[in-house]
Amino acid sequence: MPDLKHPTLVQKHIALKESWLCEALRLKETQWGQLDDRAARLRAACEPTAARQIVARANLLGETSGVALALGRVQSGLWIALIGLLVIAALVGGSAALAALGAGLQPVNVVSALVVLLGVNLFSLVVWLVTLIVGIGSGGWLAQSWQWLVRKLATGPEVGLAGQAWWSLWQQAGGLRWVLSGVTHASWLVASLAMLAVLYFTLSMRHFSFAWETTLLSADSFVAFTQFVGAVPQWFGFAIPDSETVRASGHLSRNSEQAQALWASWLTGALVCYGVLPRALLLLASLALVARAWPRTQPQLHSPYYQALAAKMWPAALPPEGLVPPQITPRYPPRDKGANSATYAVITGIELEGEWPPLELGRAIVHTVMIDSRDTRNMALGQVAQLNPRRLVIACDARHTPDRGTLRLIAELASYASKTLVWLQPAGGADGPDGADGRIPVWKNQLHTALEVEVLVTPLLAPVSEWLGRSDD
Fold first, then answer.
1. Helix ranges, 206-341 (H)
2. What pLDDT, on the 0 to 100 scale, is given for residue 426?
3. Count of structural domains, the chain
4. What's CA 252's distance to the chain center, in Å?
5. Same domain, residue pair 165 and 278
6. Which structural domain, as residue segments, surrounds residue 453?
């Protein structure tokens, strides 16, 4: 079994999307059984580390199993749900500010207005702090609403699994609480900013009188309350009513312009200092903790699942015997010179008689072992998968009737190459395209029906070498 702790085998930083895909496949295979991953393992064998092989396998299986598509839907759902939640928060916040001020026909009750602007926000903040301390919280009801919206918006096969993998990945990294908390604080921050904007705009456009009303409390109680609430806003330059202004506002008479301005400043300062600033600071703290947890969103390579997977993949990563060394400089450069571009021209054969490889093949053409057994089949598949050839020739004996196993092998080999040619060698070296025994039409019919490959019938090597040497430009 490969040692994943070895520095040359461990990939320290795997992208979040790749880690997410690995986790989704882990959950899928743990719950529903192992996927057919032979082709993916063969393709991933060329990666330099066990961790990168696991990621490459996940990328290939994700495309074929539909998990990658599900991840994209969940990712879109996460953003759409978040934007929708913030829009709703802004609308609710603006409506709350209008409700706090009223229609302006009666003086604004400053205590009631303060409760409307801050009451639910502060109560939610206290509940969040309590659940954070006792460790039972899930980010608050706003974060739960976000999760619910994601489930409603992201629908389709494998989507539930992809969503489960997203939360599981952050949970393992110790960042799920802060992701959900960030959504909660962002929603309240947007709501508070909407309140502030509507409050400031409305107070700027209309005259409002302010008053407090009570049956049991004295005026001194409201003076103390006003001074207590206005202490922090004063640090930021907000003016607050003095004791005389507070006492004079205890009846329904109209305030002076100065008193109106002081009460408006007091309300605005309270909203800024107790609504906007705490949520902004907590949002920044949550984002910082999310960023701190981000590097830990990696596949748990030391878990039994990944250890077993690495042991299964490792033999495919061993250098195959009999492969022509890939130091050969190709005669024709590939069209795409990127890191993943196909470079080699490769030829392989299936159950041929005579000498292999063909004489005068050319040094720029790579050949694999002759496929005549299960071991050579696996070896050739591994070689072709690692080389990812630009052009591939599969030589076949036209005297043999193409069966399902041969067609599957041709299809699998062709999946690793940019272009594939099936070279049919006629029986007895016949020059005719159909051969004497009529099997060549069967080959052509089967290949054209099931596969997108070219077919060439010839006993000669020259046309095959010419096809291998063509430039794809």
1. 219-235, 243-248, 257-271, 277-293, 304-317
2. 79
3. 2
4. 59
5. yes
6. 345-468
Domain final position from 275, 296, 317: 296
Closest CA to 163 of 299, 296, 67, 50: 67
Which structure tokens are listed for 176? Answer: 């799920």
CB neighbourhood size of 114 (10 A):
18
Query: Of residues 413 and 141, which shows the higher confidence score?
Result: 413
SS3 254: coil
d(C-alpha 319, C-alpha 387), whole Å: 12
| Structure confidence at residue 12 as a pLDDT band (50, 70, 90) | low
DSSP states along 54-88: HHHHHHHHHHHHSHHHHHHHHHHHHHHHHHHHHHH
Model-level pTM? 0.69
pLDDT of res. 129: 87
What DSSP element (H or E) covers 31? helix 16-32
Helix (H, G, I), strand (E, B) or coil at 160: helix
CA torsion sign for 368, 373, 378, 379 is negative
Are 156 and 288 in a shared domain? yes
pLDDT digits (tens, 9 = 90+) for 334-356: 334 333 445 678 889 988 887 88
What's residue 104's pLDDT?
67
Token code pair at residue 45: 């064998």
Say which CATH number the domain at 395 has.
Answer: 3.40.50
Please tell me the predicted confidence (pLDDT) of residue 361. 75
Q: Is the pLDDT of residue 286 over 90?
A: yes
For 65-173, list the strands marked E by DSSP: 108-109
- Which element (helix H / strand E) includes 399? none
State whether 190 and 92 are in the same domain: yes
Number of CB atoms found within 10 A of residue 276's CB: 18
* Residue 217 covered by a domain: yes
SS3 423: strand
Residues 387 and 256 in one domain: no
pLDDT average, residue stretch 257-261: 80
> Which of 269, 110, 101, 104 lies closest to 199 in space, CA to CA?
101
In this predicted model, what pLDDT tens digit does every residue of 216-249 receive, in sequence order? 777 778 888 888 888 898 898 888 888 778 777 7
Write down the pLDDT at residue 136.
62
Give 346's strand partners.
366, 392
Give the DSSP per-residue string, 331-379.
SS--S--STT----EEEEEES--S-SSPTT--TTEEEEEEE-SHHHHHH
SS3 460: coil
